[in-house]
Amino acid sequence: VQIGDRVILQNLKEGDMNGKSGRVTQYNEIEGRWEVEVDGMDIPVQVKAQKINKGELSHSEDKGDKLFTLGDTVSLQGLKTKSLNGKRGKITSFVADEGRWEVQMDRDWSVKVKPGNIKSEEEENSKENDITEQKEKDEKDKGRRKLFSF
Question: Could you tell me which of 70, 71, 81 has the C-alpha nearest to residue 117?
């Protein structure tokens, strides 16, 4: 753990803090704890290193594994609130008791979304590349047909 790291709190006695995310701001040598500014809270918390999850977070569901890291840019899809589909945000935490990822959409608001309604930037880029490759192939095929038409 280092100052500035984005982290998620875990295995805390106060269960409502588990799954909350924030940024490490300092280390208190006297207490042996890291200070974390938790997103959406005014007062920082001090926690032991073993109560901090800094690595990748994953969640499994029937559709397969969805693996995200704090700060990943993602886009939303298949939501009932149609105006949010296609919008981009950043992964800030996994709310285990709700089975949803929290996605920061803007400075002022975030949404909790089921894993199946989130597309990673890599998935999005892969899909765009596939579409571009198919268009290029179609254009080449079209050009070949013109060469051989009588």
Answer: 81
